[in-house]
Design goal:
The structure is a single chain. By secondary structure, the protein is α+β, with helices and mostly antiparallel strands. It has three domains: 116 residues, no CATH class; 41 residues, no CATH class; 126 residues, no CATH class. Helices cover 34% and strands 28% of the residues. The chain contains eight helices and twelve strands. Strand 8 and strand 9 form a beta hairpin. Helix 2 packs across helix 3. The two termini are 30 Å apart.
């Protein structure tokens, strides 16, 4: 449940229903496993795991949801093996080569035959609504996966008035100045990760990992005109993360001292520990999001 990534979305209007009714609205799109000829299914599951039934977990104005996506796995090599056998069998029986369209139709038949026996793979995507601040925060490494959750939420609620957070000030320029020696805002300090790119050649990228960023080598890249596309940062010694140029927060790490602040033994009461962990994490990420918005600003134009 501890988020590893963060994509920030702004609510541009009130949700179609009160937060207290979210669980009821999501129930119609509860997850149903793939069956028969299904290749992919997405739906809501309980954030607390398969033993729980409620689809929204709420703590002091923060509301956690979880989307599960299940896909059938059909490796191309497996399809090709069965298809080649079928093609050879038919060509030998009929004494002729199959046409391109016949091969394509046969491939479709093979896929339909294999689907019911295919293995499945699932992924969970968590998100929480920060009600007071009007933000939706999604734990997703990619925009596409976040969009899948937004689409599911939109279908469940009928409409979803959100847009991605759009910074008012260019993150690339600001992060480049930070790396060049400009004082960072209070509470932030440099980490050990950065991506430097040539603005005239997108393929020319220098990646620094686990490296002191205050070195001559890094400065020489900046002097040569490279800009920061991603920068490792530490916030108040409570959250380490990498900030990307699109304001995505990646590779989030929480020190053990933060994770253990609830003081609840998970072996004694897993539900209470989950509740305490979510209360702690949601508050920290909500404040981190507010810090980033305060630094980079936010475009307020309508979507």
């Amino acid at each position: 449940m501890w988020f590893k990534n963060l994509r920030i979305y702004r609510l541009t209007d009130a949700l179609p229903c009160p937060a207290a009714e979210l669980g009821e609205r999501l129930q119609a799109a509860a997850f149903v496993p793939c069956a028969g000829m299904d290749t992919r299914r997405t739906g809501w599951v309980s954030p607390m795991g398969p033993a729980a039934t409620h689809l929204v977990h709420s703590v002091t104005g923060f509301h956690l949801v979880c989307a599960r996506t299940q896909q059938k796995l059909l490796p191309p090599a497996a399809i090709r093996e069965v298809l080649d056998e079928k093609i050879l069998e038919i060509e030998n029986a009929e004494g002729r080569k199959l046409h391109k369209r016949e091969r394509a139709n046969l491939k479709d038949e093979v896929i339909q035959t294999l689907l019911p026996r295919a293995l499945t793979r699932s992924q969970l995507t968590f998100a929480f609504l920060a009600e007071a601040r009007g933000l939706l925060l999604i734990d997703s490494p990619t925009p596409a996966r976040a969009e899948d959750l937004l689409n599911l939420l939109r279908d469940s609620l009928g409409r979803l008035p959100v847009r991605p957070l759009v910074p008012q000030h260019n993150p690339v320029e600001i992060m480049t100045r930070w790396l060049g020696g400009t004082r960072l805002p209070a509470g932030l300090r440099l980490g050990q990760h950065c991506d430097l790119r040539d603005p005239l050649n997108a393929a020319n990228v220098v990646r620094c990992r686990q490296q002191d960023l205050a070195t001559r080598e890094v400065r020489e890249h900046l002097d040569a005109g490279k800009q920061v596309g991603a920068l490792g940062l530490d916030w108040k010694e409570r959250i380490g993360f990498v900030l990307a140029e699109d304001m995505a927060v990646k590779a989030i790490k929480y020190p053990e001292i933060v994770r253990n602040e609830s003081g609840i033994d998970p072996e004694l009461d897993a539900a209470a520990r989950f509740d305490a962990d979510f209360a702690l994490m949601s508050l920290e990420l909500d404040q981190l999001a507010a810090t980033l918005i305060g630094i980079f600003g936010e475009e307020t134009r309508n979507p």
